[in-house]
Amino acid sequence: MKKSQVIGHLAAAVTYVIFGLNIVFCRDIATESGLAPITLFAMRALVAAALFWLVSLFAPREKVPFRDLMKIFGAAVIGIFLPQVTFLNAIAQTKPVDLSIITTITPILTMFSAAIFLREPITWKKVGGVLLSFVGIVWIILQSNAHKGAANQETTAMGITYTILNCAIFALYLGTCRKLVARYSVVTMMKWMFLVSLVLSLPFALPKLATSDFAAISTTVWLEIGFLIFFATFVAYFLLPMGQARIRPTLVSMYGYLQPLIAIAVAIASGSDRLTFTKIVAALLVFAGVWIVTTSKAANFDVRTEK
125: how many CB neighbours lie within 10 A of its CB? Predict the structure, then answer.
């Protein structure tokens, strides 16, 4: 495996580990902060945009033609604004187990999206790997929730709708924007994408900011919000394009299976879940599926070398 591909795998893996921890924190934030999802997103976009624009002052300048700025606008809508808003709405209206199971369709949707828009080959090996990981992750999620009592939170029809929309829109982003992401540096792409996302969110967030009771938010939840804003937004979206540019979209999305694994690992560490043989087997199926896709045709082809 080439050095650039190793970087791509590491970037994607660390991104989704952060996203996995973020799911744990977002449940608390959604239920205890009292902040509307769009308000929380606007806070994330504001800080991330400010940080990326600050970093850009010390990075080599890249000229972005108007045509590509319009493409970046579209990428911001389907890569940041809509996925994050639908996710924050989904997590407040969906049981954790239901959310985790529904999001397992993302790699499958990404595989078809990449095949349609990027002509990424769909091989039997790739299909087998995706399905193997799919079975493994659904199994481990069901195992982790088999002996738990009913949660206070109920899954609503809108929660399911938001979750499916989140999966479909982000799969579309991974399957269509790979070449655009690879054309410019991470800082150039993200400073514009988060600026666009911030502008889109402000008309909806500003009216709700006036009614938000920030003083009522506990210190613990503020720390979780800090993680959400800095690590799950700035750091994660710094790393994600590095993965997108170096490995195929289907493989990038398969690292999303780390999210429920991380959430379950946190539950085991906190004593609210336990490690069993079946969970170990299920986790091995997930990683075996990722390995199969990694070794499939053109899985790691670096888009920056495409002709």
Answer: 14
User: Can you tell me the distance from the alpha carbon of 104 to that of 64, in angstroms, rounded to the nearest whole number?
Assistant: 35
Pair 39, 209: CB distance under 8 Å: yes
Distance of alpha carbon 101 from alpha carbon 134, whole angstroms: 9
What distance in Å separates the CA atoms of residue 197 and residue 123, rounded to the nearest whole number? 36
Per-residue pLDDT of the chain (307 residues; tens, 9 = 90+): 788 889 999 999 999 999 988 888 887 898 888 899 999 999 999 999 999 999 999 999 999 999 999 999 999 999 999 999 999 999 888 877 778 778 888 999 999 999 999 888 888 888 999 999 999 888 888 876 665 554 556 778 898 999 999 999 999 999 999 999 999 999 999 999 999 999 999 999 999 988 899 999 999 999 999 999 999 999 999 999 999 999 989 889 999 988 888 878 887 787 766 778 888 888 888 889 888 888 876 555 555 554 3
Within 13 Å, how many C-alpha atoms sit on residue 217's CB side?
A: 19
C-alpha distances in Å from residue 306, one per residue of 55, 118, 204, 300: 28, 11, 40, 12
What's the structural domain count of the chain? 1
Task: Determine phi and psi for 94, rounding to 5 degrees.
Answer: -135, 135
- Note the pTM of the prediction, 2 decimals: 0.87
Residue 99: which domain range?
Answer: 3-305
